[in-house]
Write a structure and sequence with these properties.
alpha/beta, 192 residues, 39% helix, 6-stranded parallel β-sheet, globular, single chain
Length: 192
């Protein structure tokens, strides 16, 4: 089984993120889920991002990377949207990662290094018409990552929703989220 660090999105540590982590735990994985917003949850993504920008995106990213420091190096990092920043940073800069799952966002590899770590498995998931994922360059970064990394997969799902994986949000897409969850569990079984 895998040991997993889950990093939440811009709404905060929502019931949907907690439900996702419980699904991983029930499958036998050890899961850590820090609260990068220090107890704050936001009804809209705009409010959450306003908070994140107010404290500083770098501060939120550092909260995520700091959460890993007391954990073993052999982690699988899971980032939801905003949580992709610390997840990808950790995967690229902290030796020992077992894998990384980037949900609904992806940064260019050059953000945190020259190349993707050798033999580090990665999956990227997003909707093909999500204005954040598809139109702000994330899907392009994901395609470049898949082309350059030895063990990388990109999964796109039909639709235009951002945060479709969170069951507690109105943007949730039950069918697509179920596919993501199955692929995530298969990935964890493989790398764990």
């Amino acid at each position: 089984m895998a040991e997993v660090l889950v990093l939440h999105h811009g709404h905060g540590l929502t019931a949907g993120v907690r439900e996702f982590t419980e699904t991983l735990r029930k499958a036998g994985h050890t899961v850590h889920v820090p609260d990068l917003f220090e107890g704050r949850e936001f009804a809209t993504l705009e409010e959450g991002m306003e908070y994140a920008e107010g404290v500083g995106i770098d501060t939120v990213t550092e909260r995520g990377t700091a959460a890993a420091q007391e954990l073993p190096a052999a982690l699988v990092y899971v980032g939801f949207s905003l949580g992709v920043l610390p997840a990808q940073k950790l995967a690229q800069t902290r030796p020992g990662a077992k894998g990384v799952l980037l949900l609904e966002a992806c940064l260019p590899v050059s953000e945190y290094g020259d190349t993707w770590p050798e033999n580090l498995p990665v999956q990227v998931h997003g909707m093909d018409a999500d204005p954040f994922f598809a139109e702000e360059g994330d899907v392009d970064a994901a395609r470049e990552l898949v082309e350059s990394a030895a063990d990388a997969e990109l999964f796109t799902y039909p639709g235009d929703r951002h945060l479709f994986t969170d069951s507690s949000l109105p943007t949730h897409d039950e069918h697509a989220a179920a596919q993501v969850t199955k692929r995530v569990l298969d990935f964890l079984d493989r790398v764990g």
